[in-house]
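Researcher: Here's the sequence for the chain we discussed earlier.
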Amino acid sequence: GPFQVGEAAIQFFAQPPEHTSTPRASNRKDPNFLRAELQERLHNGSLIYDFYVQFFVDEDKTPIEDGAKRWELGDARPMKIAQLVIPQQDLSTTAALNAAETVQGMGFNPWNSAGAEQLKPLGSLNRARQTVYMASAALRDEGSLPTASRCPVFRIVSALVRGVEVGLTATNRFINWSDWAKLNPYIGVLNLIHVRRILRQKNLVDTETLNSRAFYEQGFAYRGGCPVMKLVHRTADGSYNDLSNPHMGRAGTRFGRNIPLDKALALQRNAQLLTPNPRAVAQALMTRKSFQPVLQLNLLAAAWIQFMIHGWFFHEADSNQSVAIEVDPQDQDWTGPRPMQVQLTKVDPRALNDPQDHPTTFLNRESHWWDGSQIYGSTQAIQDKVRSHQDGKLRVDERGLLPKRFESSTSEINALEATGLTENWWLGMGLMHSLFTLEHNAICDRLKANYPRWDDEQLFQTARLVNAALMAKIHTVEWTVAILNHPTLKISLNTNWWGLFGERFHDLLDGTNTNEVLHGIPGSPKELSGVPYALTEEFTSVYRLHPLLPDDLVFHSVANGHQIEDLQWLGMEPSQSVASLADVVGPKARTIMEHIDLSDLFYSFGLMHPGAVALDNYPNFLRTLRHEDSVVDLAAVEIFRDRERGVPRYNEFRRQLHMKPAASFQELVGGNETLAQRLADVYGDIEEVDVMVGLFAEQPLPSGFGFSDTAFRLFILMAARRLNCDRFFTTDYTPEVYSPEGMAWINENTMQTVLLRHFPQLEPALRQVDNAFFPWNRVGGL
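Model: Thanks. This is the structure I predict for it:
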């Protein structure tokens, strides 16, 4: 198998200088006959081998991943670099036997070399050898296992976990364990693990075909030099995350599904795209009459999830095709042309030309991986623009703001920040992008201080790995815990990252992660569950969370707690001191960040609340949103998108997730007769309720939940899958790839430490706040 040596990739071999006869052991039935043969040969003289290396040429002649293809001597000319001499000796002496006993206690593994900074195994064969040799060593000498894994308590707990899972599976056909929220928290966690296992078996569907995969190969062959960097670092577009399927999850590949393809196809073919009218549905059920806040959260929670979504998925619109949505002539709120024109989602053109393909599949413009592409971009061109190309850092000005003006044909886009993705930009996005750009640069400083010989490229790539992993950790154990504030979920989400018994037990098991339940997913074996990884259309649908956005924003100073009232520079009247949502979107967000200190803006977001993800709470500004030369009702568009993309309506959505459908409108809304009647007036039939409407209407919610239990079922599956399938969170989540300092940075930091590192003046506001997404302290006694 190949190895990385510095910036090169090599294979090596040894052979005698000239052909010599090999003595045969006298008794080949002896299980130790190889040792007897070696003993005889060394008794007669020294053993000498010439040591050769072959250098990587290209992917065709000297493949890294294809272990079945030999590096031929004519393609990669061997170079003799040393001579290996095993001196003549007597292996029957007491000293030799003692040495043999010592060797017997060792575990051979090519990955034992990985601690050396300049020497790392590469390729699928070496990755397989790592697992096989560890298992072999454990079987041969149980004492070689790390202490925690051979601890009786560890084994008992492992057996209990497996036993409870088996019990849940066996009894689930007789007892409905789906109401996990009412169980003991630890039993509830194991039940959720059981639910996730069922979803992994039944709700992962690949939309790619042989022809679509063949298309990805066109023009994508690796050119020039050793491909070491793409093997140990993330690529710009997400390719080569899976080394045996380099296109899996990269930008420009298809969304997967969580429902059977034939079901999705039938829904698309028979979709009643305009029945009932999406605008009429939005008017009747989405219109925000008064703001419904979520008092347990602050507004950073709303900014965070949009920041994350930007790095996960983006459907492109088809500029050549649109649909007209009629607007009621009596609709006094509508300010745009009638009818409302909505561009269709751009279909993968390859599918249209292939009779064997699924006719309506859609491409994700962004990388599917959890790789921070909202900051770093999903193309090499964008990545090059955001980088300073010095000490691995990203571009920021002296105030900590991102530079402006990407090249674009529209002046409004030019006025936005230069970062990975700027669509749907508002102040919350500006704050998050600035914060984690600054965090990237702080990571670079730490790495450079500890590894002074690293160049710009290695600093950048390693800092990106660390920053992306830190964001994934914050999302898993802080944001999700805040918005799903339930005792079982606190355990469950910490289990995803740290294991069932938390961070301390995780540290005891360091280096023995073969059980994601006990140890957590990071560093565990990679698991695709038999289906190539992709984000899905249904997962996109449950992240329709625009009700989190408020109508108005009030800014305060963290120095004294006073409200910042002078906003005339924002084009507001002297009497106005409250900014509307319209005042903080697009280029206006940058204007605010240039006039109000970032620490004050973060403090203000820490005091304000997001909206509830519920009916009658969709921001009215987004209901008449100007988009280029048109006006759209974003709530109506989101309803239309689910229908267009073949996402089931609410009751069928629940059936596909193995949940009981709502028998009536009253059951859907938890007995609220008034709301049930309003839904009946719009839909007539409970089976026609759109998935987004049903998710917003669903009652009762589990205690502390910020969104529905139905949506949560997809989170159980897909949130863990984003970690399980990514080698940089599993097999390559190691100090050798991230560096020891990088791993320490991830483990040591939280959203609070990130905020305080860059804005230490926030300390009084965050003092004794358990979670940075919970409401902050007011300062100044106000």
